[in-house]
Model the fold of this input.
Amino acid sequence: MPNKWQTILDELKNIISPMAFDTYFNKAKFVSDENKVLTFSVQSAFVKSSIEKKYHDKIMSALKAAGFNDESFEIIVVDQPKKSGEIRQGIEIIPGVTPERGGTKVSSVGDTLKKMTSSIANNGLNSNYRLDNYVVGGNNDVAVGAARAIIDNPGNSYNPLFLYGGSGYGKTHLIQAIGNEIHNKYPDMNILYVTTEQIVSEFVSSIQNKKLENFKQKYRDLDVLIVDDFQFIQGKTESQNEFFNIFNYLHSNNKQVIVTADRLPSQIATVDPRLSSRLTQGISIDIQLPDFETRCAIIREKAKLKGNDIDNTTVEYLAENFNTNIRDLESGLNHVLLLADLRGVPTSEVIGEITPINQPAQRRVSPRQVIDKVAKYYNLNIKDLLGTSRVKDIKNARQVAMYLMNEELGLSTPKIGDEFQKDHTTIMHGVRVVKKNLKTDFNLREQITELRSKIYAN
Done:
């Protein structure tokens, strides 16, 4: 009874938002109306589940408003239409149930989750994290170079390796990739990936259960120890002491240790200076937020892994509007892919509906304000900063100002050149020098961070 179905759709339009209607009901199709049960179809189990959870009461209200007081409804899932527009009856995939079609098993959501879980071996490593799907850019190329050296010669190259940087910058992917590559190359090695919170929990439990020696032996038997989120050891004195002992044992026996945190050990409150010193005696590398081009590459790589080929418009929109970290970037991509799939349209048609997750709103800043802030920060006068002096400190500050104008304000090198009365090639060189130094000069990184804060301060 298509007229009845249309009446109900019209009622739904009046009681839910246009976006919700377009997402969940626009492609719904009338199937039947028998025994006071209205049956309609949707294009995926996800849509069916969402409607049942979010809009059950709304549909019942629409039925009553349309004059069908005693009716209930049922939703079935059908395959996506063929190009001819034909709709074929499909199979609803329910978690934990594996139906068959023509003798061939169809993977359920439960099966998929089981496979994902089984990919995490006893060593804590997730096999999905590999070097071949880790996008390398200027923000992490030094860390990747160290990773490759460790894979070739674990325990002897860059030991320990300490990686630090913001949450969602790709540290976990890289260290797990190192573990997986070592496992593939040296299958007999005993490797363990563990979070700091897991170590602390194990340690406390071993004391409570009088199994401290078992705990110690477990870690002493390792060839490679990979520890994530070291900052969570803050304030845990006994756990720090035990970790210090574990580290010393492994390191003295040429066993590889890899640790990550959101900052250097010396910047983590209450961390024992001895432990801090040990962790940075190999090499410490900062992984930074990926730049625009690297974010574009990350989006393309993650879309490819999901079996999607997205257009440049979508890639650039996501890279521009999800610039806080890689996790937010992937979340934005997943949202776009889901909406595009639900609507059956290209991703470029739905990106306008995605709420950007940009860095905190920053007030508009002029080039002169950057120059003023940099001059004050380095205790220079503006005349010197804009002049031709080759004194090292002045020259370095001038290049930092050029870099900030380029990175923060998005100014082209010719426009920056106008501010300094210099050729654009000089500006290019200055920006390039700062970018290169940022990879290894941690003091410079701290200066840039402080300057950013001062530039955008009220």
